[in-house]
């Protein structure tokens, strides 16, 4: 009689434990919505620090020094470093994240070169497989260039802010 009661108690406990474990696994799967891969348009905040900032005239006016989040995890401000040399004497200003225009393509140069190569300069020819071949006499050097898309870099190429460097330096300094 005691062995029957122990067997029934053991089966009852085993069935409750299995149901509880299954319920816990289901609740955990439903409550966690973690990302498993990078999605286009998502950037790593650690990679935004150091991104150059240009104005509408393609003049570099500073770079991103820091990203400030609010309590909900949304970006409140971006701290721009303006002026200075090697981080010394930089003036930090806070600008709203939505005031920056993010660009994935490199900055286009507005200057053009009209110099011609000397007669003894090596000839460079682009190859169809994104390599550049330089020929000097009998020797040929092949340089492979790879392009990285913004979706695999996890950060934009640069940002554009509608201000001059002097206007940014005149803004109140951000204090940490």
From TrEMBL:
<dbReference type="InterPro" id="IPR011033">
    <property type="entry name" value="PRC_barrel-like_sf"/>
</dbReference>
<dbReference type="InterPro" id="IPR027275">
    <property type="entry name" value="PRC-brl_dom"/>
</dbReference>
<feature type="domain" description="PRC-barrel">
    <location>
        <begin position="42"/>
        <end position="103"/>
    </location>
</feature>
<protein>
    <submittedName>
        <fullName>Photosystem reaction center subunit H</fullName>
    </submittedName>
</protein>
<keyword id="KW-0732">Signal</keyword>
<feature type="signal peptide">
    <location>
        <begin position="1"/>
        <end position="21"/>
    </location>
</feature>
<feature type="region of interest" description="Disordered">
    <location>
        <begin position="108"/>
        <end position="150"/>
    </location>
</feature>
<dbReference type="Pfam" id="PF05239">
    <property type="entry name" value="PRC"/>
</dbReference>
């Amino acid at each position: 009689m005691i062995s029957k009661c122990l067997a029934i108690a053991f089966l009852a406990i085993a069935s409750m434990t299995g149901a509880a474990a299954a319920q816990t696994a289901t609740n955990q799967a439903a409550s966690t919505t973690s990302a498993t891969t990078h999605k286009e348009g998502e950037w790593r905040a650690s990679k935004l620090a150091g991104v150059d900032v240009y104005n509408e005239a393609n003049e570099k006016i500073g770079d991103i020094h820091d990203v400030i989040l609010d309590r909900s995890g949304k970006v409140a401000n971006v701290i721009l470093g303006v002026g200075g040399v090697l981080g010394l004497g930089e003036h930090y200003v806070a600008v709203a994240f939505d005031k920056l225009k993010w660009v994935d393509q490199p900055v286009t140069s507005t200057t053009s070169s009209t110099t011609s190569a000397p007669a003894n300069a090596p000839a460079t020819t682009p190859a169809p497989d994104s390599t550049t071949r330089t020929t000097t006499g009998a020797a040929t050097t092949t340089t492979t260039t790879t392009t990285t898309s913004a979706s695999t870099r996890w950060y934009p190429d640069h940002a554009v802010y509608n201000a001059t460097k002097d206007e940014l330096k005149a803004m109140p300094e951000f204090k940490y």
